[in-house]
Automatic annotation (TrEMBL):
Full protein name: EFCB1 protein
InterPro entries per record: EF-hand-dom_pair (IPR011992), EF_Hand_1_Ca_BS (IPR018247), EF_hand_dom (IPR002048), Recoverin (IPR028846)
UniProt KW Calcium keyword: yes
Annotated EF-hand domain residues: 66-101, 102-137
Native organism: Sylvietta virens
Pfam families (UniProt xref): EF-hand_7
Lineage, top ranks: Eukaryota, Metazoa, Chordata, Craniata, Vertebrata
Keyword flag Calcium: yes
Entry keywords, A to Z: Calcium, Metal-binding, Repeat
Amino acid sequence: AAMSRKGMKLLVDSLTRSAKHFNKSEVECLINLFNTIVARASSQFAGAGFDRTVFRDTLHSAFGMTDEVVLDRVFSIFDRENTGCISVVEWVEGLAVLLRGTLEEKMKYCFAIYDLNGDGYISKEEMFQMLKNSLLIQAADEEPDEGIRDLVDIALKKMASTYLFVPFLLQDYDHDGKLSFADFERAVREETLLLEAFGPCLPDIK
């Protein structure tokens, strides 16, 4: 028990330093919550963490996040070691960005969510896939894909209106129709509403 308390203290101290946005008391609560979730989950990762299904259920119940594509992407970003299991360190450090990240941290997080193939750019096809999953189903007599493609074009024009996207196209024809992180960052700094331009990937403010 003494070792357990000592281990807990060391873990709390370490995560308070690395997670930055939580104090020691909050880190301890998040560790306890993690342990509770792991104990409830009958998973092959029992003791080490929890899997994608448990993670998605937790984010859905805690934050009302429902988009399956977004939840899968959030899991992948939390799961930095790519083990298929969220460890306690990944849990606390991931929540630090998700809940209290700086604008810089949230921009990197949102960009990574939208960059589905991890190539460092958000392509028109990736924008289409994200918007397709986050929008309500249209009336039967409408062509949903066409409406979504129109929205992608509108989003790109919005980026261009902040002098971001057009110069990028002029400089790099190899990536025509794609947004780099630099483009995304400049656009968000001009208009913070563009942070979640291609689908909701942060919890509601409440």
